[in-house]
Amino acid sequence: MLCFPKAKINLGLQVLRKRPDGYHDIETVMVPVSLHDALEVTKTAPRTDIRMYGTDLFVPVEQNLVFKAWKLLADRHKIKPVIFHLAKSIPAGAGMGGGSSDAAATFVLLNNFFRLELSNDVLKTYAAELGSDCAFFIDSKPALAQGRGEILKSIELDLSNYAIAIVKPLKMSDGQTGISTPVAYSLVKPDVARIPVSEVISLPVSEWRNRLINDFEKPILQKYPEIVGIISKLYNAGAVYAAMSGSGSACFGLFETKNPTLNFSRDFFVHIAKMQ
Ligand code: C5P
């Protein structure tokens, strides 16, 4: 059984307040894009293993969100150990939800593989236990996300006419390969009194620039000037709107042309996607 867990981008992201549980209440719009991993469950086995292709080859299996999703279902529904094959294309530490999408896909796959007949709502509750943006990937449909990011409202949004250029530095100026989400949250000053993302998003895309704001950008752009360079390059190449996705470090540009001409060196991951 095979599936293709998609990546997401965030259109605007407001960090509203810090919560007593240590998380932050946010408001953001999440949109699935065609950049995806591939995840297969092949057979039951004496112990669960993940055969990795692409990146993260040396990360212990138990730390992978796919394993954590299997473990959660094994604890609650007594499913057997299985063998997974996971081919990674979504970069890690990018703000594109790669690990969360793999975990959500694991719930959906195992629900079918073991005929558990769990509803999507139950799968979303399980997903939210593994990560704040994980529930989004159960349906992978454009949604306004609130709370920690797990309270989802479906929205109508059609970006099918845009090419979505995704650009991420392979290495940050501090030597890291991506940005850690908790570190990014620690740099933001929450602020509640603003025009909600849900309102700004209803404007035409051509009016999003300077209105649709990702709160992570200000502190992250200060710490990593290379991100400023990516966003201005995307605008110079003709993007109607460009921003960082989530807590970074991936940025994206929306282009009205099918094949935007981008001029990034081999030090960058570059991918032209479509909205899914
Ligand atoms: O839920 P997730 O595992 O993605 O969160 C990773 C970390 O990011 C949390 O431990 C927390 O520090 C921070 N976070 C937050 N508020 C959110 C989501 C994440 O503070 N809404």
Secondary structure blueprint with pairings:
Layout: E1 2-3, E2 6-18, E3 24-36, E4 38-44, E5 49-53, H1 65-77, E6 82-87, H2 98-113, H3 120-130, H4 136-139, E7 143-146, E8 151-154, E9 163-169, H5 181-187, H6 197-200, H7 217-223, H8 225-236, E10 241-244, E11 251-255, E12 268-273
Parallel strand pairs: 5-6
Antiparallel strand pairs: 1-4, 2-3, 3-7, 4-6, 7-8, 9-11, 9-12, 10-11
Helix pairs in contact: 1-2, 2-3, 7-8
The protein binds cytidine-5'-monophosphate (C5P).
Distinctive features:
276 residues; alpha+beta; four-stranded antiparallel β-sheet; 12 strands; binds cytidine-5'-monophosphate
Can you give me a brief rundown of this structure?
This protein is an alpha+beta fold and 276 residues long.
